[in-house]
Amino acid sequence: MATTSVDQITGYGETLALKAPCRLATTANIVLSGLQAIDGVVTAANDRVLVRDQDTPSQNGIYIAASGAWQRARDMDSNRDLTRGTRVYVTEGDSGPAEFEVTTESPITVGSSSIAFDLSAGSVNAAALSAAAQRAEEAADVAEGLASTFILSENTFDTKATAAAWSPIAAPNYIRTAGALAVDDGSGVAFVKGTGSGGFTVTLSGGGTQDYKPSLQRGFDIRLFGAGPARTAAQNSAALTLAMSYVTELWVPPLATGEYIDVNNEVTVPAHVKIRGAGWHSRIRQTVREKNIFIAGDHCSFEGLHLIGDNLLTGADFTKNNGIYASGKKGVLVQNCFGEKFESCGVQLRGCLDYKILNNVFFANPWGAIASSGDIVVYSTVAAGRGLISGNSCFSNNSQGMFLDALGYEAHLIITNNHCVTLDPATCIEGGTWAEATVDYTGVTSTVRRRHGIVVGYNSSSVGGPHSIISNNICKNTRWTGIYKQGVSEGGVLIIGNHCSNNGLDNSNSISGGIFVNGSGKDLVTGNIIEDFQNTTSATGAITINTASPLGVWTKVHGNLITNSLGRGIALTAQTALVDVAQNQIIGSVSTDIEAISSGAAGTGGHHIHDNKIKRTSGNDVRGIRIQTGGTTLVTIVERNSIAGFDNTNAVNTNAGIWTNSPLVVRIRDNHVKNFHVAISSGAYFTVSTRFFDLLYENNLIEDCTGGFGLSSSNNTVVVPLVGNRFINVTNKTAASATYTVAGTKCGYICRKDDDRLVVLELTAAPAVGTWAAGDRAAFPAPAAAAAPGAICTTAGNPGTWKAEAAIAA
After folding, report:
1. CA 659 to chain centre
2. How do residues 590-610 score in pLDDT, each as one tens digit?
3. What residues have CB less than 8 Å from 146, skipping those under 6 apart?
4. From 160, 241, 276, 642, which residue has the greatest number of CB atoms within 10 Å?
5. Greatest C-alpha distance within the chain
6. What are the backbone angles phi and psi of residue 146, rounded to the nearest 5°?
7. Residue partners of 795: CB distance under 8 A and separation at least 6
8. What is the Cβ-side half-sphere exposure of residue 150, based on CA atoms within 13 angstroms?
9. How many CB atoms lie within 10 A of CB 206?
10. CA dist., res. 189 & res. 159, Å (int)
11. pLDDT in tens, 361-375
12. CA atoms in the 13 A half-sphere facing the CB of 214
């Protein structure tokens, strides 16, 4: 608490009513440390500052400025120092002089109560009065411009030419014209002192000259330049072009139902200009083929507009027929707009940097002869094309919702929170049902023609590729994919938290998937939900990984939920290599749940499939996991998966939990397989005459299956040890007939391992076939008194030399 002896820095005596004056008052949130500019004035040490605009209102109060941390003034640092109505006078700053009072209800706890300061009722604030006067003048200017007739004051002329012919004694600060080029063009332009494009020079009768330039005032109404729904398209185009010479912000007013501002040409928007409207009813419509509406400059922004194309399908130039187009620009912002009926794109950016496309709605954009058409298209023709595409709704039935980082340069993109759902354009009208298109395309608008929801990194095989995050999007109702990542990504693409459904309606196309990753690199596909994938014929799945060539780097498919796929759950196709498939849940697939098939080229395979949960709800001749990577030396590991079948009664070897035709490059261990005809099956012979000691088929739990292992060889010399497996309600632990594997000779043996030796557990006599090593043993399953408990191999061979062990005592 302050005392009566403190000085004017720390505060006067114990009074609640009036505090010692402050030099300055804040106008925004500040950091409470260091000397800094406040309200146009730089603080000095020991200045008293009224802090009144903190984001955390309990921080408000009177502080002592310092080069380090600021402290509360002693006359306002305790609960007894202020109450509602306590006043303080501020002497300087753009907002001063002024008097403020506490408006927070008492009692007030310093440091925890939200403290508010407002101008006191009797305060005279010169800056506030000046600002009010300026706003009144601006309002008068707008009213003047909107008037049907113009009152010409001393400094107001009908046109720019008549203004330039005026010869005042002294130069006024402003000159206004009723029109820019003609008295009736409605522009109402203001000119200020200075040299600039679109200006003029006045010769002063008192001697000398003065240059004037257009005043870049905010928020000129488009009608001030002669545009409107009653004007022709040519007149509106000319008015928009004229406005670009005079404004930094242009307002497109809401129109009555059925009204449009038609245009017949493109409008090139200069740098740093904002064009804004009121949303749906601020409609601008292009009426001519091969024309964009706006061509954006650097740091232009478009907000709250409703842009409409000509809805024709004869365009040949992809850089035309767009709502907003920009090439090689920086900082373009498009937000809260509507776009419809553009054959190319609602928004198309080429080689742009640091752009944002936010919270727009695109619908009813048709697909004609331009295969790359989309609601939002971004071509990355330069490196580091940083962009944020978020919150958009892409509802058209065109080629794709979003076509991003096309050409695949090293763009850094964030693509998040978008809806790419194919709707019937005939229903996307004001008051319409906005109904989803559903089945594969049959030539009518209510069927799905859109190929992809989101495409990223197209044709990036020769450059660094996208470095992108694709997250939290909904991609629904497409012929091919929900999300299509195409091309190599040296930096990797993160595809996370998306929801894709009803994708793959075109059964004839192999580019198909809820999520399809092509040309895979260091990519991560995680935490996505894929529902109702539709492709039943192509070797694709709800998630498809398809590499153009082996890359030697890992792609990760982790933690996804896949339900009710009519095709595969997860498909690793072509020359796929080094894919880590982990912790996914796959429920209700019609075809194989996880399938890895490669061409067998060197460097393919080598996958790690682990900790997945698979539950089949139909099918009794379908494999849970299928590995077909023959011809490669890279080993695929299948471990710790839980695989539940649907029906174990159909006696075919494809009714299998885990199936492979590449048994020499697959390791299968620690899996839980339940309710299949055969738990683990090979669709190919073991042909090499050897003892496969290091081939792991180990520690699996096999339950409710007719057969445990279906393994066979083309001769009787092969030994495949089956070690540490647990069988519950299994009829045949090993089998070699055609219903369990390819028909051949038994080669799988139930064993355990003692160091580098095998102990066979299923034979009642020494092996008569197979390749064995000296020291291998056969432990008979039913030892008896006075009989040998087993046999031991003393000489390696096929089957080698076996000797009975010493008999058990009688």
Report:
1. 36
2. 999 999 998 878 888 999 999
3. 188, 221, 223, 224
4. 160
5. 140
6. -80, -15
7. 774, 801
8. 25
9. 9
10. 9
11. 999 999 887 888 999
12. 21
- Closest Cα to residue 200, out of 247, 166, 242, 237? 166
Average pLDDT of span 427-442: 91
Please name the amino acid found at residue 317.
D
Binned at pLDDT 50, 70 and 90, residue 463 comes out as low
Contact between residue 385 and residue 378 where contact means Cβ atoms under 8 Å apart: yes
Q: Which amino acid is at 75?
A: D
Q: Which two tokens stand for residue 160?
A: 């720019």
Segment 262-275 shows an average pLDDT of 96
Instruction: Give the separation between CA 366 and CA 372, rounded to whole angstroms.
Output: 12
Q: How many CB atoms lie within 10 A of CB 20?
A: 21
Q: What would the two tokens of residue 282 be?
A: 């601020």
Smallest Cα–Cα separation from 668: which of 695, 705, 632? 695
The Cβ-side half-sphere exposure at 564, using a 13 Å CA radius, reads: 6
SS3 614: strand
Residue with the larger pLDDT of the pair 122 and 665: 665
> Taking the CA atoms of the chain, what radius of gyration do you get in angstroms?
39
Please tell me the predicted confidence (pLDDT) of residue 9: 53
Neighbour-count burial of 217, counting CB atoms closer than 10 A to its CB (0-12 exposed, 13-18 middle, 19+ buried)? middle
How much is the pLDDT for 492? 80
| Residue of 45, 101, 53, 95 lying closest to 69 (CA atoms) | 45
Residue with tokens 């199936």: 659
755 pLDDT more than 90: yes
Cis check for the bond before 107: say yes or no (omega within 30 of 0). yes
Question: How many CA atoms does the CB half-sphere of 783 hold within 13 Å?
Answer: 17
Amino acid, single-letter form, for residue 50 = L
Q: Which two tokens stand for residue 599?
A: 């061409």
CA 332 from chain centre, in angstroms, equals 19
| Tokens at 142, concatenated | 């707008």
Residue of 56, 25, 31 whose CA lies nearest to 119? 25
Check if the beta carbon of residue 611 is closer than 8 Å to that of residue 672.
Answer: no
458: left (phi over 0), alpha (psi -120 to 50) or beta: beta
Question: What is the distance between the alpha carbons of residues 120 and 122, in angstroms, rounded to a whole number?
Answer: 6
- Tell me how long the chain is: 810
Lowest mean pLDDT among 135-144, 173-182, 235-244, 369-378: 135-144
In the three-class reduction of DSSP (H, G, I as helix; E, B as strand; rest coil), residue 801 is classed as strand
Question: Starting from the edge strand earliest in sequence, which strands make up the sheet with 61-64, in order?
Answer: 24-25, 48-51, 61-64, 71-72
Number of neighbours of residue 45 by Cβ within 10 angstroms: 11
pLDDT at 154 over 60: no
Judge residue 635's burial from the number of C-beta atoms within 10 Å of its C-beta, 0-12 exposed, 13-18 middle, 19 or more buried.
middle
| Residue reference for tokens 């109402």 | 188
**Is residue 242 scored above 70 in pLDDT?**
yes
Q: 321-359, pLDDT tens digit by residue? A: 999 999 999 999 999 999 999 999 999 999 999 999 999
Global confidence as pTM: 0.76
Q: What amino acid occupies position 204?
A: L
**Read out DSSP for 700-754?**
-EEES-SEEEE-EESSS--BEEEES-EEES-SEEEE-STTTSSS-EE-EEEEEEE
- Say what the pLDDT of residue 369 is: 78
Nearest one of 225, 232, 213, 270 to 251, comparing CA atoms: 225
Residue 216 pLDDT grade (very low, low, confident, very high; cuts 50, 70, 90):
low
Q: What is the mean pLDDT of residues 390-401?
A: 96
Return the higher-pLDDT residue of 195 and 45.
45
CA gap 421, 477 in Å, rounded: 6
pLDDT at 3: 39
